[in-house]
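Feature request disguised as a bug report, sorry. It would help if multi-protein outputs had a clear separator. Right now it looks like this:
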Amino acid sequence: MKAVLDITRLLRRSGQHTPTGIDRVELAYARHLLESHEYEGRAAFVARLRATTWYLDASTVSAFIDTLALRWKLSEARVTKRELFAIERFLGQPTGSLANLEPPSTPRSALPDVLPPLRRLLSPLNLLPRLLRRRHADGAVYLNVSHEGLNSVSGVRSLARGQRMKPMFLVHDLIPLTHPEYVRPGDAEKHEMRMRTVLSSANAVVCNSRNTLNELNAFAERLRLSVPQTVVSPLGIEDEFQGGEMESVPTHPFFLTIGTIEPRKNHLVLLHAWRVLVEKLGPKAPKLIIVGRRGWENENVVDIIERCRKLGDHVLECNRLPDAHLRWLMRQSRAVLFPSFAEGFGLPLFEALALRVPVICSELEVFRDIAGDAPRYLDPIDGLGWARTIEEYASPNAEDRAAQLAKLARLSVPRWRDHFSVIDRLIDCVAEPSFKPSPKLASFPVSMPAPEPSVGRRTAPSFERSSSLIFAGERSLEPAGSTSFCTAQPHSSMR
């Protein structure tokens, strides 16, 4: 079987210091095609730049992918010992608990430079000539897993017909269509065109959850469009996220919430719940660590974090944290909190479940879909309910938390290898000359992993603080020039 992966997004995002959730997915697909024996000599890569489809030399793609993956990994680990010591003091943990988990972070000047492999990748010598395109593409399955370049139905159809490829798409979510209030103006119209392109040109579609599949089906029905052959395959998580021995219980209970600070993530309900807990319990109230960059339209949340002095000793904002330190905090926490109003998948939730850490989350269909009855579910607007449940879970003898831990011990969480075992079979099926896309909704006939996953992710053009730790009640006095601008997707569900 031949597979041609579109890595336009990775090329466009290669200058960023950290990846979004969708970046991680496209990177995982690229590495799978490059490393799997099944695709040896049968994997190709394309990028659509300036209205032209360029075929890329696989060996040079491999060097680019390795450099980019290493750069992103080292960039995410760029946290100072001073910042880690601040978290330790906040939690009353022994000095070095976090700081000694990994070697000192790599200086920015020592990060791998992605520009040389990118230049080699796009040099005339490595862009396959037009005469060789048909040999590499003829009969191949064209993979697009990032929603990139799907704003034109005719463009994708032309690509498929001209190169005799069979398009296959991964749909992450339909949040811009189901919850347009949480995205930038104009994004709903753009995403509608992307989904029209998927439904009109795909030979097969992959959805990351049954909830996404249901929303895609509803969208198709509303517009009277047919749905191609479709399979649900939960996204995978890295092997580093796996349950182990329980960590020692910290002297002061604390909770984590992970996700970009934006309206959809609903940090406001947690801050109000914590104010209730502090007023009721005083110094004995549990603590909260907010892990995530500042996104868009978050002024009310930021005002509470920076100006509410009652929360100063109980809430800490941390906009960057390496995976090793995040996993350590997860294992130490009483639970990880996800009060979102809408999600496409929820990768951090999946990672917490894989670590056998209790989860308290919103009553969302997508969370039920991927996590079953394992988490504790609450209404996202029930502030007092969140306060009561958090107080309950903070107790060392919390019965509901113990019951959830028992469920988590039996939970099977899919890894990337599980995801690709489904994808490989679907690619093989689509590549068959006799394959015809089904005119109605169907599920790929494979044995699916036990339901549970998640990914996400970041926000609209916004700012991130040069200081990564902000204690509640501590207003920033930094000059305006101390911020740096970044771009991410406000509707992406990945951490």
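(second protein starts here, but nothing in the output says so)
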Amino acid sequence: MLFQSYDPGDFYDELFLAPGQPRPEAELLVRKVDTLPVEEIQRRQQLAQNFLMKMGATFNVYGAEGGIERIIPFDIIPRLMNATEWWPLERGLKQRITALNCFLQDIYNDQKILKDRVIPEELILSANGFLKPCIGLKPPHGIWCHIAGIDMVRDRSGAWYVLEDNVRCPSGVSYFLENRQVMKRTFPEVFSRGGVLPVDEYPGHLLDTLLHLAPDQVDNPTVVVLSPGIYNSAYFEHAYLAQKMGAELVEGRDLVIADGYLQMRTTCGLKRVDVIYRRIDDDFIDPLAFKPDSLLGIPGLLEVYRQGRVAIANALGTGVADDKVIYTYVPAMIRYYLGEDPILNNVPTFLCWEEDQRAYVLDHLDELVVKAAGESGGYGMLIGPQASEEERQKFARLIQENPRNYIAQKTLSLSRSPTLIDGELVGCHVDLRPYILCGETIHITPGGFTRVAMRKGSLVVNSSQGGGSKDTWVLTESSDFNSSQSQA
């Protein structure tokens, strides 16, 4: 019995209340897994990995030895939560993305939040993601961020916190969707009981979100997914979403500005493009407006976009809201724009650009997690309790040289979830990235992308740093999973 020896430890565990005591919603799953020999569980685990590889669900690691294409390690023991727990999270995420859209509209136009000194002006002007060429832009319907991935974590008490906002080009949704398909194949007898909220409608909702941006006078809008190309780390996702939506997958070289519109080269000549789902960072998308040496973008795109002749999701300039320093002000944005208290709290954060907070950070580097403001993917980060003295001294110098570029956060005792490693279940730390779509309405797919720190004791869940993933099940209140009387 695989779960018999599992110890949740002194952490919030996603499936267990105590050793041998699964949470009510996990009882059916635990009983089912424990009816199977360990060898059978391992066989199903391998089949799941093989299926993901066969589907091409890989990502690229830049500069990796022995080839750059890898599969994200997948764990077949899912994460479970009740719908009654999910709905407050959903409300909090809708509140947060609404405030972020208000902030982006404001910061590139009237800048009232700066005039009212809610956010220091110098923080915005010094943010790498704040793009002056985008000042004055007014995207369709006032929506800047159409696709968002908000990273969430739990602490030892089980309370939820927002760890980061990803509102520029958030990735991972394809792996989230493929994980569900894998689980349906791996445990069909469990899914046959029903009660797990579906996620496979995401591509349809994404297409609806993009079509909502098209100019009103266009009867049959053309939507494309703009990718940097096959060597991009998330190319599988670009191709996957384009195929699921029935949209064209294009690169910058496939597009051109002609007759005042964005046009796509086809075998039948040029065809007008109305909506771009871009997976290229702002700096590379138009060499006339941003990086002049970019070979990935389309010269003149910003001007056509400014004239409202093409829509772009996410809007150019949204990267300012990904800045980890700006993240600390989101609760203030919610109060300022919406007149509400935040439903979801940030992780307690120190701003190194403020002298007193910087002094505290430098004195407590062995207790804190330090992050560079503009980095992602687990790069530019120091986990103080696990770092060497040499690493802490290096970050101390970096902070002193450029305090604006760093924040520090309390080291939370992140929740853990049983994870199959080498034939035994190990409690591994997890986070959660729900995906939010903002179109005519705000839609959030139940659950999200659960990332797992696959190394024992590690807090780093990013795939580029060796992290893995698992499926996330949100269970309806009437689900058999929630009945302690259910029979496996």
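Even a blank line would do. Unrelated, but nice: Residues 484-488 have pLDDT under 50 and may be disordered.
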